[in-house]
Amino acid sequence: MSHASRTQVAIVGGGPAGLMLSQLLHLSGIDSIVLDNRTAPTIEGTHRAGILEADSVRLLVDAGADRVLREGHRHDGISLRFAGVSHRIDFADLAGSSCWLYPQTEVFADLHRLRTATGGDLRYGIADTAVSGLGVADDTERPRIRYADTDGRSHEIVADLVVGADGSRSMCRHLVEGAERFQREYPFAWFGVLVETPPNAPELVYTRSEAGFALVSQRTETVQRLYFQCDPAERVEDWSDDRIRETLQTRVAGEDGFRLHEGPVLERSVLPFRSFVQSPMRHGRLLLAGDAAHTVPPTGAKGLNLALADVRILAETVERALLKDDADALAEYTDRALARVWRAQHFSYWMTTLLHRPPRGDQAGGFDERRQLGELASIVASRAGSTYLAEGYTGRTPS
Ligand SMILES: Cc1cc2nc3c(=O)[nH]c(=O)nc-3n(C[C@H](O)[C@H](O)[C@H](O)COP(=O)(O)OP(=O)(O)OC[C@H]3O[C@@H](n4cnc5c(N)ncnc54)[C@H](O)[C@@H]3O)c2cc1C
Fold this sequence. Notes:
It contains 11 helices and 19 strands. It is an alpha+beta fold. It folds into 2 domains: 3-50 and 103-179 and 280-349, 3-Layer(bba) Sandwich (FAD/NAD(P)-binding domain); 185-273 and 358-394, D-Amino Acid Oxidase, subunit A, domain 2 (D-Amino Acid Oxidase, Chain A, domain 2, 2-Layer Sandwich). The strands form 3 sheets. Strands 1, 2, 8, 9, 10, 11, 17 and 18 form an 8-stranded mixed beta sheet that branches. An 8-stranded mixed beta sheet has the order 6-5-13-14-15-12-16-19. Helix 1 (16-27) runs parallel beside helix 8 (303-323) and helix 10 crosses helix 11 (383-394). The longest helix has 27 residues, at 329-355.
């Protein structure tokens, strides 16, 4: 026997996009059910993004999650490091904006706590999600979502709309018939570690070196997040703490004597990446948001910010469609969301190809390495060049 529920919006995926959407809809008086096949503690313990644009911080605060203002760290710039020298890109001066260091684990914890406190129907740890009845041929048809709960009991939810916020391995995106998929693969990945040391620098340090890219980031007063470029086929078990330390020190070394603090490596993972966009982001009564519709390489710190930006537009779209009976709302969603997505795609691709070393043996590699150095020199030598980076990174690009 199947347990039945009725809701206005069924949200597949209870990551930052799904939870934020549920909270914004709640504030507009629209009910929703959030489904996720992982447990909340698993999601909260998975380290991912760490940088929020000012717009993302504003959205969190507007939604009722303002801990970021007390416990996040405002960053007014980054260091761009190449040829062994650091150059500060001053966001506040160049773009009149800033970013916030506030890990995705905290964003999830805040939204989960908030939505629980506001009475949200959150169903984590479920299995076998299946969506049907998207109302493409018959608009009176309503979507049905079936799943099995943690005890294996089957459930069915009938909704007016279903939102696929189910991340980069989205099942929902495959329900969009005739969608176009645009993508680019990269011949490198990131090796990410958490290391127990004090912070190495007050702001993020993006490093391009002869040995490859490295990113020095922060998490807390005692734990830091560091990344270095690696081969996508790299296996974490082949990397001892000493090998990781040596690789990172080599990448950031320079004439100024900059060195990283050394400490135990608490966690390590390989993060392959690609640029991906699916269009349209809507099919009948199904709408996609966040990584389900698009992914970016992490270099420009855009993934989480784009997911939240989609949700801001989507909440308004759903409100227009369900509360104001606005027939154009759903049809306009893809174009509104993709306008920002493609700018972020360009920025992420640009930063990635600017800072990562082409693989050895790449025939054009020698040319590209020197071209990268020429481009980096132009960026730091020119206010226009630095402003372009600052605007893209903070999401403040004029429209
Ligand atoms: C491994 C990894 C590491 C990353 N690291 C960085 C980083 O270092 N820096 C950076 O800027 N960005 C990073 N990102 C990108 C950033 O984390 C994402 O852009 C962000 O999480 C997008 O949020 P989302 O809510 O769209 O998707 P997600 O956070 O992926 O949430 C989707 C949710 O849907 C659930 N789900 C999936 N399928 C189903 C299903 N069939 N039924 C029910 N639930 C389902 C998943 O369990 C998940 O909780 C990383 C992404 C990944 C995957």
